[in-house]
Design brief:
22 helices
């Protein structure tokens, strides 16, 4: 059922790609220490530019073939089903592990730090104790994480409209708190922040604002966009969460006016510009008030910083005035970032499982849709069962952090295959191309040729950067370079197995599934 609006889809893209509050709280500032001299605002500007051809490509393909399954449908109908399964498996990997990350994020990086920060600023030792448990006790982490998986399962089962009501409601609350933090940083004074920081830090035996900078040897820390050894790996890190503004293609089968090219473009570019603009604004407000060198110092372990709370964005904003009401609003709203991000990540695998089943690659039960809610309940349960298993593994395994870097590489592999399909569409499937919204030329050249080629080049460069800088994916050890080709090869093998094994079994049943790929699935 086409029940999702353009607003639903834009928010969907914004929270899958770069949920402002959580991204600015942690992800961006990882780069400051990992790659000294990182220019966050400059690199965000670069990511905005390089994502333009990618989004145009996805928007044109989505408008031409607005079906559940996204890249699986396009690549299978234009290039070949095996390549479609490879690209789709790569995207599903990102979705499932991304959802597991945000489930764990709720306990480890949202609820735990928020309680510790709130308890620290209000001198409430119970909150500090609870918050510490959510960050260190595996049982507490697991319970909170699995509770989030259960919550989103129940929401998804209720159907598309209910799902987007929850997504949008949580997003509005979370975004309001983040914008409030921006206002606080815009009107607050550096003198006031330093006084409050020094006072709170002294209670726990820490040093002054200046001592924190001095201990980290950060007096001269400054951004340098021209330093490629800082800019290139920072670009990979930031592109790793900025590249997903095309994610709404997986809900095209449920999006109103999905075949409208302008609507697809506005949804994707609306999310991209929203994310980039607010991340640049938020980071620059923080650097302007607190100082780039101080933020750099806070991300470097130092005895001068003794506050039990992690120095994340919302906590630092709360310290500007250090008043109870403002602190509760800033830290409480931060808890709402996990749910919409989980929903967006999980939505894609569910729809892909449905599409596979519809094409007879999986048991037909996975394509079953509840008549009342219009939700594919079996596919929802399978996807969330996998996510729960990944969450359990992530709590007890230290290797999970490595997987987050590999998600970017999985996305790169998928986009490269989609780029090849975009280039091939005009010649291989002229019947689909000629009357489609993708039939657009620039100086006589099909736009798909241009944006498809640029997308392929861009993500080949991303893979190259991951090979050049071991800190990104190889745990800082260049001898682990074999991890990257092994991981990509694994995705390829899994995709081929998921296609050829069911195909063989269907052939034994007298069913030739090759015929389904000669036409688009019905709307």
């Amino acid at each position: 059922m086409r029940e999702a609006s353009a607003v639903d889809a834009t928010i969907f893209n914004a929270v899958i790609s770069a949920p402002i509050g959580s991204t600015i709280a942690y992800s961006i500032f990882f780069t400051l220490v990992a790659f000294p001299g990182a220019d966050v605002a400059g690199v965000l500007g670069i990511t905005l530019i390089i994502n333009i051809p990618v989004l145009i490509m996805f928007a044109l393909l989505a408008a031409s073939m607005p079906r559940v399954g996204g890249d699986y449908v396009w690549v299978s109908r234009v290039l070949s089903p095996p390549l479609a399964l490879i690209s789709n498996v790569a995207m599903i990997f990102g979705g499932l592990f991304g959802a597991a990350f945000f489930a764990k994020f709720f306990a480890l990086f949202a609820l735990g730090p928020a309680l510790v920060a709130l308890g620290t600023l209000t001198s409430n030792h119970t909150f500090v104790s609870w918050g510490t448990s959510f960050q260190t006790d595996k049982t507490w982490i697991l319970i909170a994480s699995l509770a989030m998986v259960l919550l989103q399962t129940l929401i998804l089962i209720r159907g598309t409209k209910a799902t987007f009501r929850w997504q949008n409601g949580a997003f509005i609350i979370a975004m309001a708190g983040t914008l409030l933090a921006f206002v606080v940083l815009a009107i607050g004074s550096k003198t006031g922040f330093i006084a409050h920081f020094d006072s709170v830090n002294a209670k726990f035996g820490g040093g002054t604002y200046e001592a924190v900078i001095a201990k980290a040897h950060a007096q001269g820390a400054a951004p340098h966009l021209s330093d490629l050894n800082a800019t290139l790996p920072t670009l990979f890190s930031i592109q790793g969460f900025m590249m997903w503004n095309f994610w709404s293609v997986y809900m095209s089968g449920e999006l109103k006016s999905a075949s409208n090219r302008r609507r697809q473009l506005s949804i994707m570019f609306g999310a991209l510009i929203w994310d980039c603009a607010l991340l640049i604004l938020g980071s620059e407000l923080l650097f302007q008030l607190l100082g780039y060198n101080f933020i750099y110092a806070l991300n470097t372990p130092s005895p001068a910083y003794a506050i039990p709370a992690i120095p994340f964005f919302q906590f630092l904003a709360a310290l500007v005035y250090n008043t109870p009401v403002l602190t509760v609003l800033l830290l409480g709203s931060f808890l709402f970032w996990s749910l919409p991000s989980m929903i967006a990540n999980t939505y894609m695998p569910i729809r892909s499982f449905f599409a596979w089943s519809f094409d007879r690659l999986m048991p037909e039960r996975l394509a079953s849709v509840n008549e009342r809610t219009h939700s594919p309940i079996p596919a929802i349960l399978v996807a969330n069962g996998i996510i729960a298993a990944v969450v359990i593994w992530s709590v007890y395994s230290s290797a999970f952090q490595l997987v987050l870097g590999l998600i970017v590489l999985a996305g790169a592999l998928a986009v490269i295959i989609v780029g090849a399909a975009a280039i091939a569409l005009p010649r291989r499937r002229p019947d689909l191309y000629q009357a489609s919204p993708a039939n657009v030329n620039l100086l006589g050249v099909p736009v798909l040729y241009i944006v498809g080629g640029l997308s392929i080049v861009e993500f080949l460069v991303m893979i190259y950067i991951s090979l050049k800088y071991p800190a990104l994916v190889m745990s800082g050890d260049s001898s682990h370079i074999w991890w990257i080709p092994t991981f990509l090869a694994s995705l390829i093998v899994i995709g081929l197995i998921i296609y050829y094994l069911p195909r063989y079994l269907r052939m034994r049943q007298g069913v030739n599934i090759d015929f389904v790929y000669k036409e688009l699935p019905p709307e």
